[in-house]
Amino acid sequence: MVSLESLHVRRAVVIYNPVARGLARRQGSLQRTIGALARQDIKAELVPTTGPGSAATQVRRQIDAGCDLVLVAGGDGTVNEAANGMLQTGVPLGILPGGTANVLAREMGMSMHPDRVASQLRTMKLRTIAIGRMTLGASGPRSFLCMAGAGLDADVVSKLNLDLKAAAGKLAYYLSGFAQVLRYLPEFEVIVDGKSHPASFALISRVRNYGGDLEIARGASLLRDDFEVVLFRGTLAVQYVPYLVAVALKQVHRMSGCRIMRATSVACKSDAAHPVFVQVDGELAGKLPMTAETVPNALQLLVPADYERREISRSALQVCA
After folding, report:
1. For labeling, which of 1, 291, 302, 321 is most exposed (least CB within 10 Å)?
2. How many percent of the chain have pLDDT more than 70?
3. Are 49 and 23 in contact (CB under 8 A)?
4. Which tens digits make up the pLDDT trace of 63-94?
5. Which one, of 10, 11, 14, lies nearest residue 71 by Cα?
């Protein structure tokens, strides 16, 4: 596979989220990152995002101006926004983790220090990966790298205190979840490759890692061209306590009420009396109805060489099994 070492980078840009929690806690990390890149003969310009949803427009503007390497310093939301401006361009995307959960970076086994990741950039491999494309109601399509969730987890995100998230990070998600432990959860219809299933939480994932600490979709991979879809049943939030224990023990596939499938297309529908929220890569996206499909060969992503070897090995073992 091609590595960044073999490519001549003429102009690079670091798109960063100035309010990202990880960057705010590590003063000087961006300057150290620029220095680490310079030592690898990569001259990069720092470009801050200007608000929610701005990264995609800024990336497109930089690519149109001749940028041939985009690095994103921030959380999964910022990475996802930037990626939406890079699809089918052939320009490589590199991740410099600086957010709250950093699911994508953790999935690939990266350091949580952006300057350390930057110092190893030349050794990374360039892979063409699939992405997820989602449509909510009458809105236009949007793409995602990691996951989309409908039901319980998106409802937790919808009630998240953003000030608490900024101060406490992932703890804010857990507190939001615990506060809803006795509430009713409406079930909705999930259509997976043409077959209908009921669920109160549907996870449509391209990664195994969930929230930085857990693995739910344990068969998912960025190097595959499909989703792993994990469906949970239960109309009370408290019913998810055994599911959470099973996830922690990596036994969720054995749980009654849980169904795991692979798919390239998924649709979720809910009756109007019980609106159901949807999250994308940890950010609230809207409400059902939703459709999602995979788009192969959509994005050039820099991945650590060790991650690439592990995923190829896992894929070979699954084929043999």
Report:
1. 321
2. 87
3. no
4. 999 999 999 998 898 999 999 999 999 999 99
5. 14
Report the alpha-carbon distance of residue 114 to residue 307 in Å, rounded. Answer: 17
For residue 135, the 8-state DSSP code is E
Tell me the helix, strand and coil percentages in the chain, rounded to 5: 30, 30, 35
- Model confidence, pTM: 0.88
φ, ψ for residue 144 (rounded to 5)? -145, 150
Tens of pLDDT, residues 191-229 = 998 899 999 999 999 999 887 678 999 999 999 999 999
Query: Could you give all domains of the chain from N- to C-terminal order, each with its CATH number?
Result: 4-123 (3.40.50.10330), 133-296 (2.60.200.40)
Residue 318 is predicted with a pLDDT of 59
Tell me how far apart the alpha carbons of residues 130 and 126 are, in angstroms, rounded to a whole number. Answer: 13
Residue 20's alpha-carbon distances to 76, 96, 143, 223, in angstroms, are 10, 12, 21, 27
Phi, psi of 95 (to 5 degrees): -105, 130
- What DSSP element (H or E) covers 152? helix 152-158
